[in-house]
Amino acid sequence: MAGKPKLEDVARFAGVSPTTVSRVLNNRGAISDKTRRRVNDAIAQLNYHPNEIARSLFVSKTHFIGLVFPTTGHPFYGELIFQIENILSEKNYKVLICNTMDQAEKEKKYLDMLLANQVDGMIVGAHNIGIETYQRAHLPIVAIDRKVSDTIAVVSSDNYGGGRLATEDLLNQGLTKIIHINSVPCEEAPSSLQRRKGYEDVMKEHGLPFKTYELDYPFDREAKIQILSSIFAQNPAIDGMFISDDMTAAIALSMVRKMKRDIRIVGFDGTETVTTCVPELTTIVQPLRAMAQLAVDLLLKEINNEFDGIKKNYILPVTLRRGT
Amino acid sequence: MAGKPKLEDVARFAGVSPTTVSRVLNNRGAISDKTRRRVNDAIAQLNYHPNEIARSLFVSKTHFIGLVFPTTGHPFYGELIFQIENILSEKNYKVLICNTMDQAEKEKKYLDMLLANQVDGMIVGAHNIGIETYQRAHLPIVAIDRKVSDTIAVVSSDNYGGGRLATEDLLNQGLTKIIHINSVPCEEAPSSLQRRKGYEDVMKEHGLPFKTYELDYPFDREAKIQILSSIFAQNPAIDGMFISDDMTAAIALSMVRKMKRDIRIVGFDGTETVTTCVPELTTIVQPLRAMAQLAVDLLLKEINNEFDGIKKNYILPVTLRRGT
DNA sequence: ATGAAAGCGCTAACAG
DNA sequence: CTGTTAGCGCTTTCAT
User: Fold this and answer.
1) What is the CATH number that goes with domain A64-157+288-316?
2) pLDDT tens-digit profile of A238-291?
3) Domain chopping of chain B, boundaries
4) Whole-angstrom Cα distance, residue A271 to residue A287?
5) Does B35 contact strand D, using a CB cutoff of 7 Å?
6) What are the residue boundaries of the HTH lacI-type domain, all occurrences included (chains A, B) (predicted)?
7) Residue A254 Cα, gap to closest chain B Cα (Å)
């Protein structure tokens, strides 16, 4: 045998037609026990493995799902992608991964790639090109943490509630001079704006002054340290900080410890990774597992045309995890 | 137009043959400028996107690479996968991701899936089924951190050297009562054994007593805390620990701080994530980026039959990063 | 219960 | 420079 055996080889070996082999493979139609056995024997003998690509071409369904996220290297996305892939593989879907690195150009290239490879659907957590670009694909798509759209389901956690929860927790501890650190706002991903609004609303309701800083370069540690330093210098009297992501919060916590200042910090995300590395950090926990489950459920419903098509915006509750 | 336009539709629209369209698409053969323009116009008009699946079937090459790792949710693998995917996408390869969760059964299922989907090659960092199982695939494969094999290239960092480096660093600080914490040894992934040997060799060379603990459940935080507690209780006099992974080291560091004991800790991995979250942790840094680059280079060479086929075991140098 | 034939969308000889 | 033809490996009518 030169190359890999194909269905035709199995058929010849078993002395039946390709059709029959296909039927055995897919459990379709009626097959006599004897034939089935003979075919299965041949499959085993030849160590035959069906070519899913050929099958995909014929049935016009690949069972591929594209996952478009900034990077698997960030714990929030890494863990979310893990959950999503896990649930999808359970349902016999396969995952093509795309790390956009927050670059619009890469995101566009990936979108084309996924379409060219006939994915059955996509879950998009990146946010550098307009969601309209995706709509043109006329494909089942679920977005995570994106601007609400008429045609695309969006799953996110309760960012506004999380912002409130974090701020209230600091207030409950008797703190009053609380600042907020956030990323630069992004039109396509309003989640950080929601967190900010939660913080500012609570501060206003309590008649307290508030101040929000917007950090750029969300993935660069050195830059964060620089900027945090100057923020600490500018705010010698603060006693609390709500920082809208755990990685930055962890850095701030470590700086506070070194400066021996008395500042309480609440972060956001609550991934296993950061909780493990920085158990003393209080944080707002996003329900990663539930978000993944919901996103997959919605996507598969769209793919199978069972989508009721009414509700398009899903907000999942967050919880506060107190640092130890 | 009912479904997606296909190459034939473009041909008809442009008034040429399918072959010509294909040639324009793939820049093959000689095409008159006029024809090319007409075809490109048709492509744009119809918003045509080539079907890569059909193409793959014909050329018997998918440009798919399977990535088999325990989980994208762990920073080491999440960051490594990010690097690998990044380099591969640059070369127009696409990545199918598999989270084996340390389960042999899942790993086997994924292997079958990848073969069925005609991947051009695989990079394997999971280690629950024998590497021989992969050899049967007769496919270009590169392994990361696995038992050396005659037929499969293995990329790893200098685990033995890292173990030595970590231990020597503790000794250089005047510490002498140093224990080592490791995972349970695994036949297929000898890297932790190497780290252990590095530690034990150095201790022996200095005539010092040594003790290695083997932790199970490498990804479960609560279990780790339990076991670490009892280790701390059993060792009231230690002044140093070499812990063979950063996540566990971070937990230990946090416990040490709470107990106010004076114990220096050196971890292993040195991911961006953990370095960001726990900058005060001293650790042995694995060259993630270089490992990814080398693994991809080797894989693509095998795929393109440029593999010289001599050296099969690649060990990359580690560095020590001092905590701040 | 089984087989023959057509074709999923594309590309690569081979002609012209 | 362009078109005709055959076929990648599989599944599915439509016969028998």
Assistant:
1) 3.40.50.2300
2) 999 999 999 999 999 999 999 999 999 999 999 999 999 999 999 999 999 999
3) 7-50, 64-157+288-316, 159-285
4) 9
5) yes
6) 5-59
7) 8
